[in-house]
Design goal:
The complex is a heterodimer of chains A (418) and B (89). By secondary structure, chain A is α/β, with parallel strands linked by helices. In chain A, helix 2 runs parallel beside helix 6, helix 2 crosses helix 9 and helix 3 crosses helix 9. With 89 residues, chain B is mainly β. Chain B has a single domain, classed as Folate-binding superfamily (Folate-binding fold, 2-Layer Sandwich), CATH 3.30.2270.10. Chain B contains one helix and six strands. Chain B has a four-stranded antiparallel sheet, with no helix packed on it. In chain B, strands 1-2 form a two-stranded antiparallel ribbon. Chain B is globular and about 40 Å long. The chains are: A alpha/beta (418), B mainly beta (89). The interface between A and B is medium-sized, with 25 and 29 residues.
Chain lengths: 418, 89
């Protein structure tokens, strides 16, 4: 594989950049693979990459019904964090933070990881107490957390509304300084390029139409481009999980919902953190291009549409304007939607299934992007070793029947009770 | 914006309604032995269909009645609405 470096950049400049290798090939599906990963999003690409890199399994195919970068990996708001209270989420995400820090070197691809810090605002004494508790839990798990009072928050984000007579005055906030953002497309492209270079077949425009299961064991998949035999199959298709589950006669603790995001026109640098509103669900950061990147609540009803309705967007942006009034002066540049695999306790599932050789990775809710490396790493381990790693042991499929839910926020799909 | 035809009040905008989830889910009957699997299916497991989906909505800023709505989850098109107690074939 051609290394990306300043020397190669200069060298290729002499031929007008016309002789760069393709970042990944466009292979015809083989008859048989050791592992087939369904879903060429961030998690699927990362899984294939770590299967090859950590477990020497390179006879691998990624089956993607659309194109690389067209799903949620290109639709998210690029936030990376590990500010969770529960051990399962905290340790898993912090493991991912380490992978994020090394990712650009590891993939030889600049993913523009920017650890700019995230601030969750608090708007009451009770919320400050809850944040202190969460911050302490984070620090016990080795995650950096700083509890900020009102004055400290004001120093960092003076453009927020600090006037006295507002409905939700800012009492303070919880900051994770090592959190941040990364360029989401680059993450997909970087993993795809490396996986391809190690022998993984990335097969795009290929939809899975069925599974071959014999005597409780997976034998292969049926696709729009023919049948493919496989010893092991991993499903990581986010919002399409239920569609594949139906073909396997499984019902899952997952509902597919619509989440919208939007960006404003680009403006000069004003915000160098990620900030979330504590009295609702709104978050904002500023991209390197200067756009304010914003998002918040689900549209609230089951949807596979990948496009949202305006009432939710209006509701979310009302919260944004309450938090940072200057946002009302900005023109909206783009809005879009993605479909989320909302699990019933708000935490993901990375596990084996009752079918031998079939593995499941889903339930990422609002937070799939930041989990990309850790999810791929642990899913690759689960598939290669046929057993879960201690990092994803808590993300079991049967935790809903055994009562071991991970009650980080206690919300899941039931947004109407929030 | 979705427009939902409340069987009690007529056509109203989505803003007046609150979503209540899959209407095909049935609570296990009282005074009967209920298996863990039945409870799981009632509390957690959902089909989350793509296409026609029968779901509960509450006309929370209107008559406050629960209603059933038959809606396409991939196009957001609404086909029919029913009173909560109506059986849908």
């Amino acid at each position: 594989m051609q290394k990306y470096s300043i020397f190669n950049l200069v060298k290729n400049a002499f031929s007008n950049h016309e002789n760069w290798d393709l970042a990944w090939k466009d292979p015809t599906p083989k008859e048989q693979y050791d592992v087939v990963i369904i879903g060429g999003g961030g998690h699927g690409l990362a899984t294939a990459y770590y299967l090859a890199k950590e477990h020497n399994i390179t006879n691998v195919a990624i089956i993607e019904k659309g194109w690389i970068g067209g799903g949620n990996v290109g639709r998210n708001t690029t936030i990376i964090r590990s500010n969770y209270m529960h051990d399962e989420n905290g340790l898993f995400s912090e493991f991912g933070m380490d992978l994020w820090r090394k990712m650009s070197q590891d993939l030889n691809y600049n993913v523009m990881f920017s650890p700019r810090g995230i601030i969750n605002l608090a708007h009451s004494d009770a919320q400050m107490n809850a944040y202190a508790r969460r911050g302490n839990s984070m620090r016990l798990n080795g995650i950096d957390a700083v509890l900020l009072n009102r004055e400290q928050v004001k120093e960092i984000i003076p453009m927020a509304d600090f006037s006295e007579n507002v409905r939700f005055p800012i009492f303070g906030g919880l900051m994770q300084p090592s959190a941040g953002t990364a360029r989401h497309d680059a993450v997909a492209w970087g993993y795809a390029r490396q996986a391809d270079s190690m022998g993984v077949d990335i097969i795009q425009n290929c939809e899975v139409t069925g599974f071959d299961v014999v005597a409780g064991k997976i034998k292969g998949i049926r696709t729009s481009r023919g049948n493919i035999k496989a010893k092991k199959v991993g499903i990581c298709v986010a919002g399409s999980t239920n569609i594949l589950a139906e073909k396997l006669n499984m019902t899952l603790p997952i509902e597919t919902h619509l989440l919208q995001a939007c960006v404003s026109e680009p403006v000069k640098p004003v915000l160098d953190n990620v900030v979330t509103f504590g009295a609702g669900h709104f978050y904002v950061s500023q991209s390197d291009k200067g756009e304010m990147v914003m998002g918040g609540d689900l549209d609230g009803y089951n949807s596979y549409a990948q496009r949202g309705n305006l009432p939710t967007l209006q509701h979310v942006l009302t919260e944004g304007i309450a938090m940072m009034p200057f946002l009302s002066k900005l023109k909206m540049l783009r809005t879009w939607g993605g479909i989320m695999d909302m699990s019933m306790d708000g935490s993901p599932i990375i596990d084996k299934t009752h079918i031998e050789g079939l593995y499941l990775n889903c339930g990422w809710c609002y937070g799939g992007f930041k989990a990309t490396p850790a999810s791929g790493w642990t899913f690759a381990h689960t598939i290669a070793q046929d057993r879960v790693h201690e990092l994803n042991a808590g993300y079991s499929l049967n935790r809903f029947s055994t009562g071991n839910l991970i009650d980080e926020k206690g919300l899941g799909t039931k947004t109407w009770i929030s | 914006m979705l427009y939902i035809n409340c069987p009690h009040c007529g056509m109203r905008s989505q803003n007046e309604f609150s979503y209540g989830g899959d209407a095909s889910v049935k609570r296990p009957e009282l005074n009967k032995e209920v298996s863990d699997q039945e409870w799981d299916d009632f509390v957690y497991n959902r089909k989350s269909l793509r296409g026609k989906h029968l779901e509960l909505w509450q006309h929370i800023s209107g008559c406050r009645q629960w209603i059933k709505v038959e809606r396409d989850t991939s196009t957001h098109e609404i086909f029919r609405t029913f009173k909560a107690e109506e059986e849908v074939a």
